[in-house]
Each structure stands twice: as structure tokens, then as C-alpha cells.
Amino acid sequence: MGAMATSTIAGTLHSRHLHCRTLLLLLPYLPIAFLLVDGGGIPTTLDGPFTPATRAFDRSLRQGSEDVPLSDPRLAPRARPPSPEQIALAASADPTSLWVSWVTGRAQVGSHLTPLDPTAVRSEVWYGERPASADTVAHPHHVARGSAEVYSQLYPYPGLLNYTSGVIHHVRLVGLRPSTRYYYRCGDSSLKGGLSDERSFVTLPAPAPDAYPRRFAVVGDLGLTGNSTSTVDHLARNDPSMILMVGDMTYANQYRTTGGRGVPCFSCSFPDAPIRESYQPRWDGWGRFMEPLASRVTMMVTEGNHEIEPQGHGGAATFASYLARFAVPSEESGSNTKFYYSFNAGGIHFIMLGAYVDYNRTGAQYSWLEKDLHKVDRRVTPWVVASWHTPWYNSYSSHYQEFECMRQEMEGLLYQHGVDIVFSGHVHAYERMNRVFNYTLDPCGPVYITIGDGGNIEKIDIDHADDPGKCPSPGDNHPEFGGVCHLNFTSGPAKGKFCWERQPEWSAFRESSFGHGILEVVNSTYALWTWHRNQDAYGEHSVGDQIYIVREPDKCLLQPRGQSLGGMPFFNIK
């Protein structure tokens, strides 16, 4: 069945989703043939590889939209100091602990700034399994304390303004029970108005092959435009229990330090700028905008190129905002850096990698990844899901083969350990791949999905590298970190060429539309992936793409063979 046909079927038969999901819950007791015959009309990866298909960009839609101004009530300050704002949750390495983050005080923009003192205010979280108004004698609230910091974005260039943040707090709660609702307040209890209103969250399930998050959302390259707000509104209506944010959050670096209006292309609009500037108050606005969602479900992030934000002489310092604002389980997962880490959520092991730090096989990230993958027990966490910002498989002109070096260094390791799904962003469009390894269709390769269509100010990508006249030259698409490893294909229909002349066989389906994805893991071998387009937000049972991703652990047992292909390990399939 072709991908275009399958996406049409998926949209029209989505009403049978619950029926199919019920059948899959009975999977251990039903023959596989029965499930495939009565699958609710939703295709599975077992039906692939699919004939490549493209749904053309809908010209009735806007290719982009303006950024929402900071004066908008959703972005403007709602809490007066010392009350907390920008409250957000993040998972720890396992569901018995969780991070709570927030900001107090006011950020400053100007030439000569005095940073706030992070030691002048406490970092406390009061929490328990009952609301504060309930019987606190029988169920007393616990108090956890953490740390606080302030960061600055400094530009030693005439005419550029500096920024220093509010006080950013991170507190780790421990000793939690999995799959349990907790109520919490954060802030400083010694100050009048120093604690937030009470919020609540539900902890993720404990690692087990039969326990999974109800559903988790995936979104990339979000930004803060009108399209971005549509994406988040649509995502919130899908009621996820966790959010995976695959880089490029705010696009604060589309602005001068003096603010004004954001632009789709900074270098085009400001060719004489002494450095790639950033207007850090956009981060504060983004934190306030995300708070209603991020304060009740965990939001896990990885860095993108728009988080680099160079500052200082020659841009020597980078990633200051990303490193200060987000709590991630780096120490808990043994990485000791926020650029890459891992965590468990029920029967899923998540790996978040960094595309803008050393990914070579001789580096610290690769060494950590090897150790992390070796520790995964697939009897407990059958699924392994990886994510990083830059896609390795991409048929759009934008960022085509940009991170080919990273693929050559790391793809063999992920394949060896049977990683099931990979999520990336960076390209502002949607694309789902057939299972692939080393540019070759492979039933044991991961399902790669590009979902960088969150809605940012740089607009949607619509050109494909296989469109006439749209193939980038090998000198285009240089990465902002790492080397250039552009290559011509050595086999198949594109042999000897830099670009295919038709949609590549490893690209199953692609479309240029804004949206987000939802993954619902049903059991140890079946997971339902749904891509939701923004224009379908109010359409009943309407989806942009939908497929059951099926693991075949008995088929895909991998053993090293000690040979190499394209500069990376090659493995036998037993």
C-alpha cells in the first residue's frame, strides 16, 4: 500500500482507532495475522516499505506568521515578585523523582546591569498526594529544596544591550511513587506571596514492559508566532502526559538586542551586525506562554542551533540561556552535561543527544552513549526512542546532508542496539522515513521522523532536494558545529549523484505543514504514531499521517561483524 493511500485511509478511518487499540492490548493472546486483517484501517510498518509520497503544500495556507508581541497577555508577566513564574516540570532518570523549575524577580535589559542575588531567595517545593486544603495532618506535605542561579547575555559591542535574568530555580523531588498524582507549590515560603498557586502533576509509570505513558507529544522548532500558538493549543487539546521538545524553542536570536520585530533571516536583515544577536526577553515570554502546559506535564528538551546564542568577544560563550533555564537528568543518567542525557518512562528508554557538541567516536558523548545503550534492559524497557535536533535523513533542500558527519559517526551504534524511533527537527516540515540504515532500506533500521514544523518565524520549508533545480550544491548547508561530510550516493537510483531525481525510497511520506506529533505506545511491540496538522485542529477524526510502528525483536537481533561501511560499523542481521 502506498504512503499517500495509507495516509488517506488513516484520516478517514481514525474513528476505528479505539477498536484497533483494544485489539492490540490483547496482542499476547491473538495471532498476528488476525491483528493485521482487522487493524482498524491504520497501516503498520510491517506493511512497508511504502512507496514514497508527497502531499503538496496547501497554497491557501500562510507559509509563516509574525511573532506574538511580548505585550500579549499570554507572554506578559502575570506574577508580581516574589511570586514564581515560568513554572515547568522535567522528568528525572526514573519516575521516582522529578524536577520543578521556575523564575522569580525581574530580568533586566540595558548597558550597565547589576545581576540579582540568587542566594537572597529560597528554592522550595511543597508537595504531597493530597491538595493543601485536604487533611494535611494525615497526609503532610513534603518540602524539597534546591538551587538557584542567574545568567547574563553580554555583548561588548557599541549599541548592543546586555541582559541579566531573573533568579532561575531548580528543585528535584525524590521518593515519588510512579503513576501517582501529586499537588505542589513552589517558591519561598518565608516571603509574603512567595509561593505559587497549587498545581498538580502525575508521575510517569515505572519501567516495565507493560506500563507506558498514556501518550507523549513531539514538537520541534516551535518559536512564538501565531502558528506556534496554534500548535501548542492543538497539542494541549490532545492532552499529552509528556512533551518531547526537539530543539529550537524561542528563536530569540531572530532579534536585535534592542528588541523591535523579529525577522525570518537575521543575516539578511542585519548584515552589519557584529555578532548574531539575541533578545533574551523572548525567552521569558516563551516560558510564560508554555507555563499552563509545562507546569502540569514534564517537558524534555534538547538543544538546537537557535539555542547557541553566542556572546562575548567573538562569540566565545554559548548556550547560556539553555543551560540555565532547563533542568534535565544529566547527572542522574551519568552524562554530567545538559547537552545529552537519558531517562525512562514506563517501558520506554529515551535518549536525548546533542548535535552541537562533540559527537565523534573518540569523544565523551559517544562514550556515554555506548555505556547508556549497554545498560538498557529490553526486558524492562522494550522501546528505545532517540532524539536530537538535526535530521540524518532528509529529502528537503533545507539542511540537506548538513549533519552527514554525525550520521557517519553514530548511526552504526544506534543500529547495533536496535533503536526503534528517532525524532528530529531543524527542517521546518514533516517527513516520515521507511525503516533505513546507511541510506538502504532495512527492516531493522529505526523509523526516522522529522517534525520541525512547530511554527517558528523562519517559515515552512517547501522545496525538496529532488525537485527540478532545487538540489543544493555540495558547498551549501554547512553546519554551525562539526565538519562537512557531503557525499554522492554509491548505489541505487541516485548512484553517483548528490541528490535523487525523485523522492528517495527511504522517504515514505512528507508534507510542508505546521503541526505536532503524538506517540501512544500500546505494548512492547506496537506504538501508534499520529501527526496532527494545525489546519486539522478542529476537524473531527482528522489526522495528517498515522501509522503503527511495530517492533520485531525476534527478527532484529544484531551482532557486530567487525567490518565497516561508509566509515561506520556494519552489522549482520540474524
Structure description:
This protein has a single domain, classed as Metallo-dependent phosphatases (Purple Acid Phosphatase, chain A, domain 2, 4-Layer Sandwich). It has an 8-stranded mixed beta sheet, with no helix packed on it. The protein is α+β, with helices and mostly antiparallel strands and 574 residues long. It has 9 helices and 29 strands. Strand 21 and strand 22 form a beta hairpin.
Short note summarizing the structure:
By secondary structure, the chain is α+β, with helices and mostly antiparallel strands. The protein has helices at 3-12, 17-25, 32-37, 226-237, 266-269, 281-294, 320-325, 364-375, 404-416, and strands at 53-55, 85-91, 98-104, 108-110, 124-128, 142-145, 147-149, 152-153, 162-164, 167-173, 181-187, 199-202, 216-219, 242-245, 298-301, 341-345, 348-352, 383-387, 421-424, 430-433, 436-437, 440-441, 447-451, 507-511, 515-521, 526-533, 545-550, 558-565, 568-573.
Write out key terms for the chains shown.
574 residues, alpha+beta, Purple Acid Phosphatase, chain A, domain 2, 8-stranded mixed sheet, 6-stranded mixed sheet, 9 helices, 15% helix, disordered N terminus, Calcineurin-like_PHP, metal ion binding, PAPs-like
Helices and strands in order:
Elements: H1 3-12, H2 17-25, H3 32-37, E1 53-55, E2 85-91, E3 98-104, E4 108-110, E5 124-128, E6 142-145, E7 147-149, E8 152-153, E9 162-164, E10 167-173, E11 181-187, E12 199-202, E13 216-219, H4 226-237, E14 242-245, H5 266-269, H6 281-294, E15 298-301, H7 320-325, E16 341-345, E17 348-352, H8 364-375, E18 383-387, H9 404-416, E19 421-424, E20 430-433, E21 436-437, E22 440-441, E23 447-451, E24 507-511, E25 515-521, E26 526-533, E27 545-550, E28 558-565, E29 568-573
Parallel strand pairs: 1-24, 13-14, 14-15, 17-18, 18-19, 19-23
Antiparallel strand pairs: 2-3, 3-10, 4-9, 5-6, 5-11, 7-10, 8-9, 11-12, 13-25, 16-17, 20-23, 20-24, 21-22, 25-26, 26-27, 28-29
Domain Calcineurin-like phosphoesterase: 215-430
InterPro entries: Calcineurin-like_PHP (IPR004843), Metallo-depent_PP-like (IPR029052), MPP_PAP (IPR041792), PAPs-like (IPR039331), PAPs_C (IPR025733), PAPs_N (IPR015914), Purple_acid_Pase-like_N (IPR008963)
Protein name: Purple acid phosphatase
